[in-house]
Specification:
There is one protein chain. The protein has four helices and no strands. It is mainly alpha-helical. The protein has one domain. α2 runs antiparallel to α3 and α3 runs antiparallel to α4. The radius of gyration is 13 Å and the shape is elongated. It starts with a helix and ends with a helix.
Length: 75
């Protein structure tokens, strides 16, 4: 747990950047659902958020990001 706490601030900064990227890419996908680079970038960002949330034992964020990832993969 101490290790996870050490990385909390770094994760928060990274998560903010990745969340912004996801938001921007979802807007692109709303305009053009066939935009594969936007989809790939979104899925990669979500996977990074999921892994970091898992490491920091943030189950709620992990579940939300995983749910969004699964919805995007199934479309």
């Amino acid at each position: 747990m101490a290790l996870a706490q050490k990385y909390q601030r770094s994760f928060q900064k990274e998560c903010f950047k990745l969340s912004f990227s996801v938001f921007e890419n979802v807007k692109k996908l709303a305009e053009d659902p066939s935009d594969k680079p936007a989809l790939d970038d979104t899925l990669q960002s979500l996977d990074t958020i999921i892994g970091s949330a898992r490491f920091l034992e943030n189950k709620q964020l992990e579940n939300v990001a995983a749910s969004l990832r699964d919805k995007l993969k199934s479309r």
